[in-house]
Each structure stands twice: as structure tokens, then as C-alpha cells.
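Suppose a classmate hands you a notebook page containing two proteins, each written out with its sequence and a corresponding row of C-alpha cells. How would you begin to make sense of it? This section walks through that situation. The first entry is reproduced here exactly as it would appear on such a page.
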Amino acid sequence: MNGVVDTGVRERRIDLNADLGEGGPADAALLALVSSANIACGAHAGDAQTMARTVAEAAAHGVAIGAHPGYADREHFGRRPLDLPPEAVYRLVTEQISALAAIAQAAGAPLVYVKPHGALYNQAARNPERAAAIARAIRDFDPNLVLVGLTGSALIEAGLTHGLTVGREAFADRRYEADGSLTPRRHPDALIHDPDEAADQVLSLLQQGHLRARDGQSVAMTADTLCVHGDSPTALALVQRIRQALARAGIAVRPLGAARGSNSCPQSKSPH
């Protein structure tokens, strides 16, 4: 049954995820602190060896494993928008989920969710056609996988439309515009590097249901999972400070959709 993933709001808990397997210097340390790992699937970053190592380390820490498919554009780290037709997006996502699912299955670890990376994620947040192609690929591969996307975005709507459980995501280390969209990375103030500022943004979101946009306006927002980018040089400091703030506020950190995981590795289906 589709819907929003149960994050246990009444029990005061939240998922904390990080993009990993991308060559970041703090992956091992982050895996001891986060509850979900978005693992690069070999396109924008990573390779089979990196995927296997990250899966094994995530499983050892009880961290939920998620596929993090992106554009095969390593030169721009998957952050350059590409104009691909829906069926090409479908194949791209299917192939990358399949690659990580096979590695997870070999390790005896469940694949729990899928979160697109970079430009693919941002385009799907705004473009219903691109969002539908991603949601369809996930549904056809394994309808039990959770789709993680920007809260309030077209990707979340597409997931629900295609019968998936969705995880609404907000970012601890990114600034927002007044309409709830992420501040584009080209803006010099797009990223949050100060651990205290990141922790304050997280607590405002979780305790008050809103955060402050770059222009100072208050933006109402709900999230099931919070992201810190593992390739950031301040990622570890941010996650450490966020964990401290959550603990003091009595908010537990728990994996996203852990109960929905499956050890199966279904065969991908042909585009239709």
C-alpha cells in the first residue's frame, strides 16, 4: 500500500541520511552516526568495489541501505542537468538500482529505498514527466522500495501516484528559497557549513514545522528524513552536531523504512 513512510512522529524520531560511496573522506565515520546511507551506484561516482565496501559497512552499523542513482556524468559529479527522454531515465535508474541490489543481496543486506542524485533529483522535483519515469522504474523493479524525494515536490507526487511509499526529504546542509525549493548551488550562500546553523535548521523544522529561507521568510515544511552531503568537507562535523542537538531535544535517530526492506533482488523489467 502506498503512502508516506511511517517515521513515528509521535515517538519523536527521524531518519538521518548521507550520500556515501562517492569518495568522501569521512564515509566510515559518518556510517557510525547516520541511520540511512544513499550509496552511489557507479554512474556519477563509485564502482563495484566501493559499493560492496559501503554496503558491508552500512550493514555492520545497522544503517538502512539506499540506492543513489545519478547521471553518468562523472566530470560534473552528476550535478549538470541533462535532457534525456523518459525511457532513458527509466533505464538509467533501473540499471543502477539493479547493480546495488545485487551487491546488497550478496551481502545479505536488504535494499530499502531509492533516492536520486544531484541534477536527476532536482529535475525530478520540478518535472512531473521525469519524476514519473523514476517512480515507474522503482515500482517495476520492486514496489516495496521507498522513494525518497524533496518534500512537496513532483517526485513525491509521482511516487504516490505509482503506488510507492515515499520518504519526504529535507536538507540539513542546504539553504532554501521562499517557495520551499533548494537554493541553487551556483549561489554562493547555497550550502550550510556551520554545524550550529545546520542543527538550528533541523530543530526548527522538526519542532516548529518550518525553517527560515535565505531571504528570511518562514517556510512551512514536513520531513521524514534529513540529508547531509557526504562529499562536503564539513559533513562529519555537521552530523556530529546534529546528533547532539537531536539527543538533547529527545528526538531519536532511526533508519528510514527499515521494516520494509527485502532481501530479494528482482529482475528488472523492460521499459514499457
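The notebook's second entry, a different protein, reads as follows.
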Amino acid sequence: MKLSIIGTGYVGLVTGTCFAEMGHEVTCIDIDQKKVDRMKKGECPIFEPGLEPMMQSNFKEGRLHFSSSYDSVTTADAIFLAVGTPSSEDGRADLKYIFGACDSIAPYMKEGSIVVVKSTVPVGTGLKVLEHLKGKTTKKFFVVNNPEFLKEGSAVEDFMKPERIIIGCKEQEAGDLIEELYEPFNRQVKRTIRMSNLSAEMTKYAANCFLATKISFMNEVARLCDILGADVEEVRHGISTDSRIGSQFLYPGPGYGGSCFPKDVKALVFTAKENGARFKIVEAVEEVNKEQKTYLFSKVKKHFNDDLKGKVFVLWGTAFKANTDDVRETPAIDTALALHKAGAKVRIHDPEAADNFEKLMAEMNIPVDQFENKYDALNGADGLLVLTEWKQYRAPDFEEIKSRLKNPVIFDGRNLYNTKKVQELGFSYYAIGKLTKR
């Protein structure tokens, strides 16, 4: 099939590249000409494991194209909208990019075009897209909701080996064509699930908000463990063996971030209020997460008796999670801001996201010093804060850390280290809900 993908962020670029890998002819469209030029040179604008080589090979073989023009829409069997839907100040999803994309494709759409909403959008957006496009073209077309379920850091694998493929549509023929498009991903097990547009949109929000709920729940359990003297790692293992609960998303940490959970939680809360209801559980999830993002800082503050002025702290990890360069809503933002307000200086190291984080901090007028070597960042510093679970942070040379730090203290926001081992080496050690004194 011939496909046009509007938007080349994490979702759009992964979607386009993976469809090209399956043999389809794909044109990825972006209004940023510099970004388009970079992709034509084989440069991937985002860090996502496995994406760049797949992108390069499909581009060289002529299945994957990049353009700032919408000409490819004239022959496209399906047009995927994969643009951003950021949060507005009141929490609602901002759909200006969705409707802007609709305005751009309308003059080029052929008879029988299928417009696929891949972006995460509030319930009812598919119908709004339908009405909006009806005012822009007289040609027959269909609107299908096909939400993505990609985890940054494993997005390529998630797309190539999906757990489910949601197709929300009204017309049988449109649903059949999109199901045919995904047929290569159904070879062993049928993964496509057909439903209404409204249900497809709700499924996406419900899934993300439920996962966010698990994270906030475990973070609250961890905070209570700190108060009562229980160990959250033991508790986590104890409950994860229950098949009704499972083991995923039960790891306490510095709070969730990224491009999905924060805005999707806000959007579902807003949608409920807009329709005269309250989603009390999800409201609490958001509040817990907001508190969690400064929880590790509170441990720093307590250890140094509220006197952080002039002290230097190192953040290992600035991405919101490992295997991505995404710093949107990362807990490192709140941590750096709190340290700065307390008069401390901040150093950072991250194998992929450091540049993005430094740029973001500059926009907030918060000075940070970036280091290419994680140990060099520690020289003469007063403490180390681990905020991202990158593999290279999981088994560091603790003697090296101790020799570089002015004060041998580690604040482990990801519970990466063995408490007994670190303490025997002479460190003051703080984690999230782990028992550090027996």
C-alpha cells in the first residue's frame, strides 16, 4: 500500500519506518524542512534503539521517503495523523496540530481516502476530524482511530511485535483495509481488535492512565515503607507474584514523565470534568506523581540539614526513562529546579539526553554543567543523585565514586544498588522505600 504519515516524532517516524520495513511505500511528512533534510541524509532526529539503521535501509531501498510537501497524499491509500497533542494549561489536549494537519491534507485527498488518527486524542476527536474534513473537501473519505501503544526505548520492537492492534471505525470497508495493512503483524496470533471510534480513543486513555495509576500506587507504598521501616523491594516481590497484579509498572521511583502519561492523565481528568463527572482515582494519581518528583530532593535536604547553599550535586540521568533522549516532564526537571532554588549547583550526565536537558534548563534560566564522563562529573561534588535507570549506572565502580565525591552519599532514585554493599563501602545511602537501616 501507499501511505502518508503526517508528523515525524516518536510515533510518526517509528510507524512510517516499520510499515516500510514490511514492504509498503511510505512518505513521512513534516513541516520542518531542516528535519526533513537531516532524515534524507540518514540522520535520525530522535534516539530510539533500532530505528536509525531501519530508517536508513528502507530509505536506500526506496520504500521510505521524507518530504515537507503533501503531494504523496494524492495517491495514498491511508493517511496517518501522528502529530503532537500537548496539554493546554487547563489540562485538555490541544488539538491544533490535528486540525492543522487536516487542513493540509484536505486539498490532496483522493476519493475514498482513509484518514487514520494515530495520535492520542480525547474521546470524540475522530468525529470532530470527520466533521472538520467534511467542511474542507467534497470527496468521500473515512476516519479510523488506530491508537499507538509504543513505549519509548522499545518502540520499534513494540510496533513490530504488538500485543494488540486497535482499529476503531464505523465503516466496514475502511476497517478491512487497515486490518489488511496490519496483516503481516498477525502471522502467529490475530492481534487486531475492531471497535467503535469512541471506544478506540477511550481504550488508549484507559490503558495509559491505569499504568500511571500502578506507578503512583507503588510510589505511595514506597513512601509509607520509608515511614514504617518496611522494604518496598520485598513488598513489590511479594505482591507481583499474584497473577492478578503482575510484575510490570510496580517499580517505585522519582515519578513518571515523558510525552504520554502526564498529558494523558490530565486529558482524561479534563474530559471527565467537561462531561459533568470526576475521575477521582486519576486525579489522585496526578497529585501523587507531582509530590513524588521532589521526594528524592526532600531526602537530600534532610541529609544536609536544610543547608544546600553552595553545594554541588550530580544528576546521573536526565531522560524520563532509559533508552530515550526524551526529557519531557522528566523528574530531573523538578529535582534540578529544587536544588537550584536551594542555592545548590547542578551537574548532569546522561548518555543520550544531556544536550536536550541542558537546552531545556537554559530556557528556564537554570545553569547546569554537563559532563561526558559520569565519573568526572563527581569530582569534588557533595552528592550523587541517580534519576534514570540507564544500564551504565547499574553496576558502577563504587570505589571510584567514593574517591571523587567530597561526601560519600548516594541518593538512588531508581533503587538500583544493593543496600548492604553500598553501606559497607562507607556510603550514606538513600533510596525510594528501601530499608537502609536494620
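A careful reader of the second entry would note: The chain has a mean pLDDT of 96.
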